[in-house]
């Protein structure tokens, strides 16, 4: 006897679940990367704030212009790094959106396969119930005929 449709769908469901899980992991890793980049950006902001404060304090103390220019040059580079980090975060977030779309496609495909499998299971259960009922009816009919034959 050939396998039931629901049984033939089992490997398809397993593959779909595996693919969905793999894409979910890739998406999660992407989100983690965004989180790490945002933490690095926060550190850069903190450094910049510290150097801003240092610049203000040193300028109030009358430190030489060469020292202040060095700090300004460093802060300019820091601002460029902050801007670059912001762009990197934006690119990574765009990548994450793409990864999320791919994951959602796999997730939806898995749900569709599961729905189809459940439909097959329901149909198979109905057929099995009808077959069992038919067998019971035939059995009862045979029993009834035997009783009739025994009475006659």
SSE pattern, N- to C-terminal: HH
Average pLDDT level: 94
Overall structural domain count: 1
Number of strands: 0
Number of helices: 2
> Helical percent range?
over 70%
Q: Would you kindly provide a written description of the structure presented here, covering whatever features stand out?
A:
By secondary structure, the protein is mainly α. The chain has a single domain, classed as Orthogonal Bundle (Helix Hairpins), CATH 1.10.287. It has two helices and no strands. The radius of gyration is 35 Å and the shape is rod-shaped.
Annotate the secondary structure layout:
Blueprint: H1 5-61, H2 65-151
Helix pairs in contact: 1-2
Tags for this model:
152 residues, Helix Hairpins, mainly alpha
Question: Summed up, what is this model?
Answer:
Helices cover 95% and strands 0% of the residues.
